[in-house]
Amino acid sequence: MSFDRIKGQEVAVNYLRKTLIRQHIPPTFIFSGTAGTGRLLTAMTFAKALNCLRLSDDACDTCKSCVAIDGGVHPNVSVIGIGNDSIGIDEIRNISESSFMPINNKYKVNIIDNADKSTMEAFNSMLKFFEEPPERTVNILIAENVSLIPETVKSRAVELKFKPLSNEIVMEILLAQGIAKQSAEVIAHLSKGSLERTKLYTEDAALEKREQFLKGFLKFLRGEGSVGEVVALWKAFHKRDIDRENVNLLFENIADIIDDILIVTIMKDTERLVNIDFLGHLADGFFAFSRGKLEQIYEVVTNGKMALLTNANPMYIMLSVLFTIREVVDEHF
Ligand SMILES: [Zn+2]
């Protein structure tokens, strides 16, 4: 059945099923956790189960109601915020005004994706709506950074935490998508528990491009090659403009590489590696690096990520971080 298709989130799923069995549904939820861990899928499945014409504690996926929800045309279910950078007051007004008496004597379900990216006016409008929710209305806020949601909103909601998926579960899903076993294993480690992240590596030749970037960057860390070469390899890997998001991703990649080198050379706990297929390369030449040097590079990258949060030029921040890393590499200590 439908809830069974959600992998690795037993705590959240069991809680939701219990509310269905008891027919005691809290009016407001927050589904928190990293993107790509099943938050939206779970919200949609719950919306279907609340409106299913056949089952009372799951979604059958075949009745008129389930099919209409999957097709995005059921009047009882509204989804806003998907892919949005910001949610405004008008979107919240729309859903609160459309929360009239739901059809079939079932539930009106409002799913607000990226709820943490709402404007203050939108949060205030939500709060008014949540204070006196209409009967048979369920609101589900999906958020990565719960600390951005005002306490007044949070205190009216039941928060269900979605944890990162295990490598085994990610691998199982990738194999079901037809990805070859060897690639699936590498991608599962790179995913850090998020199916969203796997998309970066399942595209055509993405793994090969990543391999070239990684080899080039490790060379750069050993004091060979130039900043320009690293930038070119990164661009080839991602085939897109150097914007804030892209530079942030580069910094995350570099932080993962430094983490991995620390794991291989100091902690020797290879199970935790992100770049599992680079085990040999990560050790090669880095035992000579002092831990202090690696930590200094990590700090340069962390500062770069902070700088990206301000309105400075992402290209400039990227170059300045790479040149500073080079200086640290070339220092003798
Ligand atoms: Zn159904």
Name the hetero compounds present. zinc ion
CATH topology of the largest domain, what is it called? Answer: Rossmann fold
**Rg, alpha carbons:** 23 Å
User: Helicity, in percent?
Assistant: 40-55%
Within CATH, the superfamily of the largest domain carries the name P-loop containing nucleotide triphosphate hydrolases
How many H/I helices?
15
CATH class of the largest domain: Alpha Beta
How would a crystallographer describe the biggest sheet? 5 strands, parallel
If you average the pLDDT, what whole number results?
A: 92
What is the level-2 CATH architecture name of the largest domain? 3-Layer(aba) Sandwich
Summary keywords:
Zinc Finger, Delta Prime, domain 3; 5 strands; alpha/beta; 333 residues; elongated
Question: Which helices and strands occur, and which strands form pairs?
Answer:
Blueprint: H1 10-22, E1 28-32, H2 39-51, H3 64-70, E2 77-80, H4 89-97, E3 108-112, H5 120-131, E4 137-143, H6 151-154, E5 158-161, H7 167-176, H8 181-191, H9 195-202, H10 206-221, H11 227-238, H12 244-267, H13 279-283, H14 291-309, H15 314-330
Helix pairs in contact: 1-2, 2-3, 4-5, 7-8, 8-9, 10-11, 12-14, 12-15, 14-15
Zinc ion binds next to helix 3.
Question: What does this entry look like structurally?
Answer:
The chain has helices spanning 10-22, 39-51, 64-70, 89-97, 120-131, 151-154, 167-176, 181-191, 195-202, 206-221, 227-238, 244-267, 279-283, 291-309, 314-330, and strands spanning 28-32, 77-80, 108-112, 137-143, 158-161. It has 333 residues and is α/β, with parallel strands linked by helices. The protein folds into 2 domains: 2-161, P-loop containing nucleotide triphosphate hydrolases (Rossmann fold, 3-Layer(aba) Sandwich), CATH 3.40.50; 203-330, Zinc Finger, Delta Prime, domain 3 (Up-down Bundle), CATH 1.20.272. It has a 5-stranded parallel β-sheet with strand order 2-3-4-1-5, covered by helices on one side. β2, α4 and β3 form a beta-alpha-beta unit. The protein is elongated and about 70 Å long. The mean pLDDT is 92. Bound molecules: zinc ion (ZN).
